[in-house]
Amino acid sequence: MKTMTLDEVKNLPPLSKAEIEKAMSFKNTDFSDCPKQSKEDLAQFRPWRERNKNSAHKTEPESALAM
Question: Which H or E run includes 23?
Fold first, then answer.
């Protein structure tokens, strides 16, 4: 993987039709790093805000201005 600035990305040559087709037809078939979860497992997930109501980290704009 290579890190690039936006200017470097803008200066890249355009992708060929074959490259675009290859990217658009990509299908991930390796899910070995993804644990299988049942509907019951998934039902236990809760939004971060809901689970951390008393957290010092707030997402409201007012708290961002107070820092």
Answer: helix 17-24
Q: What tens-digit pLDDT sequence spans the chain (67 residues)?
A: 889 999 999 999 999 999 999 999 999 888 888 888 999 999 999 888 888 877 766 555 555 555 5
Cα 3 off chain centre by = 17
Q: What is the pTM of this model?
A: 0.38
Secondary structure letter of residue 15 according to DSSP: P
**46-55: long-range contacts (C-beta < 8 A, 24 or more apart)?**
none
Rg (CA), the chain: 21
Q: How far apart are CA 32 and CA 23, in angstroms?
A: 21
Q: What's the half-sphere exposure (Cβ side, CA atoms, 13 Å) at 45?
A: 6
